[in-house]
Amino acid sequence: MSRNVYKQIYKKIKKYQTIVIARHVGPDPDAVTSQIALRDAIKYTFPNKNVYAVGASVYRFKKFGLLDKVALDTLKSCLLIITDVPNLDRVDDIFQLNYQEVIKIDHHPCSEKVSELELVDDTASSACQLVAELIYKTPLKMNVSVAENLFLGIVSDSDRFLLSYTSAKTFQIISKLIDDYRLDFNRLYASLYERPINEIRFHGYLGENLEIQESGLAFIKIMPEIINKYNVDLATPSNMINDFNFIKEVLVWVFITYDEKNEIYKINIRSRGPIINTVAEQFHGGGHKFASGARVKTMEEVDLMLQDLNQVCEEYQKLR
Q1: Hey, how many other C-beta atoms are within 10 angstroms of the C-beta on 315?
Q2: Type and span of the H or E element at 221
Q3: How many C-beta neighbours within 10 Å does residue 58 have?
Q4: Rounded distance between C-alpha atoms, residue 42 and residue 51, angstroms
Q5: pLDDT on residue 2
Q6: Is 54 helix (H, G, I), strand (E, B) or coil?
Q7: Could you write out the DSSP letters of every residue in 81-139?
């Protein structure tokens, strides 16, 4: 990544009095911690700027920091920074925002060029890794809370450094965060992975009801009555999907959750070999080669996606 990119982003941040930081709908820890960490770093560096992290709040992520409640239609001539999202149509809560310029910071394969100024690296472990690089390579300042959020985002999105896009640079940044800010990573791990008993029971339900095909495709359709029975929120399945890695019989596994409020099926897909993002892209989604997602309106589309993923698994099996 050219050092010039970091300098250009810093110049834009320095230029604007009002900055809005957004991320994708249905956020995961990396999405939330990257936007909050960047907001807090900018405010720490420039105390007189108006900097807002926006989007729908998720109760379980409030421990990372509170999002800002602001009337976006009242903000004028602002800079929009989007983190952990490759394209604008998946950005949460910006439709009323009249922004002047936009910057993208993302680690997904580039599916849409959003602006002339983008910090995109699909070999990075997480959006938080890129935000950490931005801070370390510019005059932006960091404090302990910023460092903790960056640590949590990197750990979460790399699945504790188990995923293939964990690199030497990832470990270098994690080590620097721990050393520079004396992070208590045992406490931070607990804050990230501690769960109430109802979620443990829901986790058991997922394992008990996962359907596994001969091809190596596994899936589960999670209807609202199950979400209500276990008293979990809609984000819980997506936050648990990485727990089902390393099942001997499974190559690709899919969690399908129905969102009654928005009348949409949220689909999370993971893989231990077959490339899945090309399938997700055909169903209004996308992501990494081995970690993707999509949103569709009908169960017919869900079943078509499962058919395509099953075919991908069969073709992968033939090549092994």
Answers
A1: 11
A2: strand 217-222
A3: 20
A4: 7
A5: 61
A6: coil
A7: EEES-SSGGGBSS-TT--EEEEEEEE-S--SS---S-EEE-TTSS-HHHHHHHHHHTSS
Query: 145-178: per-residue pLDDT in tens?
Result: 999 999 999 999 998 888 777 889 999 999 999 9
**pLDDT tens-place string over residues 55-70:** 988 888 899 999 999 9
Mark out the alpha helices in the chain (DSSP H runs).
3-15, 29-45, 127-136, 144-157, 168-181, 185-193, 197-209, 224-230, 236-240, 277-281, 299-319
* The predicted structure's pLDDT at residue 1: 58
The Cα 318–Cα 116 span in angstroms is 42
Pairing of strands 211-212, 217-222: antiparallel
Half-sphere exposure of 270 (CA within 13 A, CB side): 22
Q: Which of 16-25, 97-106, 185-194 has the lowest mean pLDDT?
A: 185-194
